[in-house]
Amino acid sequence: MDFSSPSSLSPASSWQPNPFAADVCTTPFEVAENRSVPAMNRDVFQRVANAIEDLGDGDGHGRSGKPLLLLTAPRAGYGKTHLLGRMAAVAESQAVAVPLVFRSDADVMWAGVSQEAVEVLRHLPGKTPGWSRLREICAGIFASMVLRLIRDGRLPCANQQQAIRVLSADPTDLFREGTTAKMIGDWLKKHYPQLRKPLTDLARSLPNAGVMEGWVDALFAGAHHGSMASLEPVVALASGSRAAFELWLRLVTLWRPVVLFVDHLDGFYRQEQSGLRIATMLLELAELEGVNVVLSLNQDVWQATFAHHLPSALEDRLTASQFLLRGLSAVDAEDLLRLRLREGQVPAVDAQHFEQFLDVPRYFQGRPVGSVSARSFLRHCALQWDAFQQIKVRGHEPLSSVAPAHEVQEPLLVDDEGTGSSLLGRDELPESPIFGDDEASRVKTLLSGLHEPRPAMVNTPFALAPVQTPPAAVPPPPPPVQPMAGFSAMAAGPSPFALASPTPPAGHPDWNGRTEPESQPRAPGALEKLRDMMDRLRSQPVPVATPEEPAATTGVAARLADVLNTDASPPSNSDLVARFEAFRGEMAKEAQHRPLDLSKLGELIRLAGKRFPLVQFDEVELPHVASKTAPRWTLQGMEILFGLSDFHDLDYWRALSTFASNRIAELQGGAAVQIKLIALKSNRETLAWTALQAGDAIPAALRPKMEVLHLDTRSIAALYAMQRMITESEAGTLNATPSQVMSVLARELDFFWKRVTRPLAAAF
After folding, report:
1. Beta strand 258-262 with 706-710: parallel, antiparallel or unpaired?
2. Which H or E run includes 707?
């Protein structure tokens, strides 16, 4: 493997964004077929697509009594949601894809499920610019009803063939300016009072139809105006009961068949009664003519919530048409690798070098067929990409002599599920001769410099750092350093709040007793200053555990927090940690069953910004929105803006985007300052976030500067617990100051600080 090209591996080479950073598909409506690997789960995709194609006969009529389609995967990360998105994209021209959302914080009732389904369509953008999916459906139903009147001879027409051709095409053309079908649309609007009665009579022919005048008026208003307010009557009529929702689906099938997609049921784990209710509802919907249901589950949820917990008759019907996803093959992985490199606009030379560096065939050696999920492979690629970039930035001569794949005993990076980040296991070369003898010493030195902390991911377990004491051979520590003023030592790369086991000073042992060689290279610039500060903080004496007082955590986050703590008699660290754990347990239920509380997170962000010494905090006023602001953290080389408003508040996000764009324009030609926008979300905000992304509130030029932080239940509970402890300390009900709380518990939120402060090159 030859990486000796100076143009691609010189220290001057720019750090390229990680094209493998995104490894979670949150909603099927963000998937595009041209951004997918066609061979992935090809057999399952074709079988499900064929089942969807069999739904209708071209007139919107479909057969009833169809089996529900059950899509299962061994575990998360095998591409269920991505496959649903591909199916929705394929069915877009011949069926209506409707996401059926079941919320774990609400009872599984027809009223809530039906309203959630139609409400989602009202906010999701359609394929027509400026149109929602619900407006498109209303236009399709209305055009199909008029078409049926013409074909039945109940609506006289001078040029019947032309009218049928126009009404059979894109129904949105009837209500959009600049289209040839707009003339027919204007005629329909002009003569709507005369059309209202025959359209109502046609709608009454549907099974279980009642008074339909309100339905016809709501469909016409929704198609003609399309505003959120004009679509509200459609949502009200289509939800509230099983009969109302089924009537809505029958109206949709007048235009096209319906495919109901059910995903993200992980919140119902071990809730057997809810599983029984969900299974019953889905099987009843699958019985409707022209409606098909695709249920997507992981095997653990299926076994714990459904499976043997259902009556045998229901279980048999659910598994009548079951499809099991398998993992990637080596060929699929290579296609996915090249797709991400191409989408990331990685130069051809770097892409070729990285593909050789990664060595996909070696990664798949010894792994069972079908056991590698797409997510674990992408996370492996992301870790390898960071290592590849480190080699380029540090300017070391790259690995020029690598043994052939059949001689390699262990991969360079061992990380089956994407959760580890250690190079060569325990900082030692494998026994097999991967490198030449003359390269071994230099590679070992390089790899020790690349040793970084575990990546802060949403599923990283919350655990205190182990209590450690310095070895006896450590020389006496220097006098304690004073707190740093300002943020001049802040590096553009690592988080200022916690770095796990950074490189110790040359010639001094680290916390594990290893000694760093004198020739160890250091990162240039601000990062070198920051690491020097970390070394000084780390060299302070660590309290030894006694029966009365446990030793404090030796993590760098705790060391930085000690700089903040100026009280003469701090409280017991163990008491604060125990109280934090108790609060986190209490907050878990709220985090699981309620929407994200942005006010609590905003308060925590403001408190942290004011107390961390490497951060300057202020509140910026947003243009064109009264009394609305956004917190801002200013670090060396970076400004971080936090968006703390509901994703449906388009005025707020437009104002925040305007401020960020103006700020970027101000900084052009000046100091190299990176602007970064942070948005916070949980599973409940996924669809609203997708709708915001698809709209025009955030300009396309600004989106590379924006990062959405997805928070799982445990992460949210930890943030809530920290906010509550600081609030109690300020109110005097907790026997500790806010600085003491931050000093002891800063490490507990290390996962959050790192994700907030990482540069965009690492985030995207």
Report:
1. unpaired
2. strand 706-710
Instruction: Tokens for 237, please give them.
Output: 């009529």
Instruction: Read off the amino acid at residue 228.
Output: M
Q: Which residues pair with 296 in a beta bridge?
A: 71
Q: Where do the structural domains in the chain lie, given as residue ranges?
A: 36-95+258-326, 110-255, 344-387+397-446, 455-495+521-764
Q: Write out the DSSP string of 363-401.
A: HHTTPPTT---HHHHHHHHHHHHHHHHHHHHHT------
Measured between its terminal Cα atoms, the distance across the chain in Å is: 28
Q: Supply angle C-alpha 83, 85, 87, rounded to 5.
A: 70
The alpha carbon torsion through 213, 219, 224, 230 (nearest 10 deg) reads: 90
- CA 468 to CA 512: how far, in whole Å? 9
pLDDT digits (tens, 9 = 90+) for 351-392: 999 999 999 999 998 888 888 999 999 999 999 998 888 887
Matching residue, tokens 């609400």: 106
pLDDT digits (tens, 9 = 90+) for 298-310: 999 999 999 888 9
C-alpha 267: how far from its chain's center?
Answer: 17
Residue 485 pLDDT exceeds 80: no
**Residue 296: DSSP 8-state:** E
The Cα 261–Cα 263 span in angstroms is: 7
pLDDT for res 480: 47
Helix, strand, coil percent content, the chain, rounded in steps of 5: 50, 10, 40
CA 176 to CA 653: how far, in whole Å? 27
Q: 10 Å Cβ neighbour count for 603?
A: 17
The whole-chain average pLDDT of the chain stands at 75
Q: What is the CATH number of domain 36-95+258-326?
A: 3.40.50.300
- In this structure, are residues 553 and 543 in contact, taking their beta carbons and an 8 Å threshold? no
How far is residue 197's CA from residue 201's CA, in Å, rounded to a whole number?
A: 6
Nearest-angstrom CA–CA distance, 95 and 386 = 42
- Count of CA atoms in the C-beta half-sphere (13 A) of 399: 23
Determine contact, residues 378/391, Cβ cutoff 8 Å. no
Q: How far apart are CA 497 and CA 125, in angstroms?
A: 39
Cα(46)–Cα(49) distance, rounded to whole angstroms?
A: 5
0.85 exceeded by pTM: no
Residues in the chain: 764
- Please tell me the predicted confidence (pLDDT) of residue 534: 53
Kindly give the pairing relationship between strand 96-99 and strand 706-710: unpaired
